[in-house]
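Protocol step 4 of 6: record predicted structures for both targets in the notebook before any analysis. Target 1:
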Amino acid sequence: MRKFKIDIDVISFSMAVIIVMSLFVLVSGHIRAEEPDNQPLIITNSKNVFVLSLDSCITHLYKTLPIEKQIPKELVIAQAAIETGWGKSRFANEGNNLFGIRTWNQDEKHLLPIPWTKWSGWGLKVFETKCDSVADYIRIINEVSAYAEFRELRQDQLDNGLEPDGLILARTLKGYATESHYTDLIEDVIQYNIRGIYKL
């Protein structure tokens, strides 16, 4: 009986060490800036740290972005989660690209999908920082004609005194990916993996 009790104590101690180390990484990520303009560092070593550090980047970018141009945080995070497997993808970690943003310019720094070995007309854009990819994603949604419906619906919500709703706005992003169920994925991630779990 004593041996079993000791095993539980060792497990409890190990879990406590893991929790303390995760909190240290999270706190240091929020305090420490990676870039010259004090962008928060987006950390991809765990789902929770990824979400919270991505939230810090969005908050940083929104300091200078008018409300009419902002995208609900839960929507930004849901798309980044889908596009990178919660920050674990090669494109996220080698290219700082959290949204599968492409480049059609061979001279621009890029990564090729595996197993490609040569340029085939496009590549995945490489960003200096992960927060830079968030800024570019926000620019794309605010400027590219494919997302005009998103912008109109967001403005309607604002005009009616409502806070833009990521769950509703997700339905307008059918053109972001080729999968026919892409917007369903975004809605599911928001509803079951973000809302009620994270305070953004």
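Target 2:
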Amino acid sequence: MPPMQRTDMTESYEVLKSNYDITANVVSPIIGGWSALAYKVESKQGTFFLKVYDKKKSGTATVLKNIDFCMSVVSWLENNTQLNGRINAPLLTKQGNVRAETQDYACCLGILTVLRSEERRFQHGSKRSWLVL
């Protein structure tokens, strides 16, 4: 899933299938935050939000060190507050982890719950990203 070569998405399709059992039809880049690249994943199983962290990027180690705790907070907010259905809560991998990893990248997947009007802001330069990350 090389971030600099967004046209070569073969590895992201493999990560989705092997770790989440999701067969992606389309993986499209969208504006992410400072710590990761973001992608919209469309499949028969639904529409998802994929964050891809480059392990070689400075600062990524700190984010990945804290990601399990951060994702548990987002999951709690999704399950226990009025934010239910309004945030992109993480999905666990088939192995029960909040992230899937390759040698160079770490990936987190969530169900895309962003409204269409908010999705347009992603496409027009908004810096809004996944809650917490």
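Step 5 preliminary note on target 2. Confidence is low (pLDDT under 50) at residues 1-8, 115-133. Strands lie at 24-30, 37-43, 46-54, 90-91, 100-101, 105-111.
Proceed to step 6 after PI sign-off.
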